[in-house]
Amino acid sequence: RNYSGTFKRSQLRLEGVKDVIAVASGKGGVGKSTTAVNLAVALAIKCQLKVGLLDADVYGPSVPMMMKIDRKPDITEDKKMIPIENYGVKCMSMGFLVEKDAPIVWRGPMVMSALVKMTRGVDWGNLDILVVDMPPGTGDAQLTMTQNLQLSGALIVSTPQDIALLDARRGANMFSKVGVPILGFVENMSFFKCPHCGEPSFIFGKGGARNAAASMGHNFLGEIPLEVDVRKGSDEGIPVVISAPDSAISKAYGDTAQNV
Ligand code: ADP
C-alpha cells in the first residue's frame, strides 16, 4: 500500500506517538546519527520522556552499534516488529534485520517499502517523542519519510564548515517546502578544547551553524564540541550521556534536548 501523497498529513499520525521529529543533515559524516542517539537518550533520561529512535539511514545504519543492540526484533501476533530497548529508548533499525557487514544494495522502491515497514510495521506503544535519524541528503528516501509521517518538526545538524552548511541549508529548505517546521539547528564539532591548555580551537570555523540559523530565521538549539568521549561512546555503544552523565558534553546534549 502506498501511503505517499494519497493521505492528508493529519492522517499520517503514528498511533500512540505524540510527536515525531526528524534529525537531518545535508551531508554525511557531520554527526547526525551521533546527535540523534545522544539526544534521544537525553530526552529519555534527562527529560524523563517516553522516547523511540528510528534509524532511517537504511544504507548506513549506525543505531545498532551506537546503542549496542545486536539482535533481531521479536514479532507480535499481528506481525508487527517490537522495537528493542536500551538506555531507556525503544529502537528500530534496518541494521537489526540484515547481517552486520552485508552491503545493502537496494534500489529505490525497496528502500521506500523498508522505510514504511520500519515506521508503520512497528509496535511503538505509547511514545512522547519518536526521534528519526534521517538518511543524509535531500532525495527520495527523505521525501518518503516526510510524506509518510506527520513530522512535528525537523532538527538540522551541521558542522560550522561552509561546505556542510551549504547542504544543511538545502536540507532545511526541503523540509520547509513540504510544510515541516524547522525546530532549529544544532552545531556539531563546534570546537575542540585542548586537553593540555584548555584553549578552544575552532577547527571547522566559528559559529557557522548559529549564523546560518539566524540568517534563515530558524532557532539555534545548541553546540556540541568535538570530543574524544563522544567518538568513543559511538564506537563502544555507550552514548556519552550515559557513560559520563555529569560531563560538560552531556550537559550540552541535555540543554539541546531541553531546547527541542
Ligand atoms: P553522520 O550520521 O552525519 O554520518 P555520525 O554520527 O556517524 O555522522 O558521525 C561521524 C563520525 O564522527 C563518527 O565516527 C562519530 O563517532 C564522530 N563524531 C560525531 N560527532 C562527534 C563529536 N561531537 N565529537 C567527536 N566525534 C564525533
Automatic annotation (TrEMBL):
InterPro entries: Mrp/NBP35_ATP-bd, NUBPL-like, P-loop_NTPase, YlxH/NBP35. It comes from the Eukaryota. Keywords: 4Fe-4S, ATP-binding, Iron, Iron-sulfur, Metal-binding, Mitochondrion, Nucleotide-binding, Transit peptide. Its cofactor is [4Fe-4S] cluster. Transmembrane segments: none annotated. One of its GO terms (cellular component) is mitochondrion. One of its GO terms (biological process) is iron-sulfur cluster assembly. Pfam families: ParA (PF10609). It is found in: Mitochondrion. GO terms for molecular function: 4 iron, 4 sulfur cluster binding; ATP binding; ATP-dependent FeS chaperone activity; metal ion binding. The keyword Lyase does not apply. Belongs to the Mrp/NBP35 ATP-binding proteins family. PANTHER family: IRON-SULFUR PROTEIN NUBPL. HAMAP family: Mrp_NBP35. This is Nucleotide-binding protein-like. It comes from Populus trichocarpa.
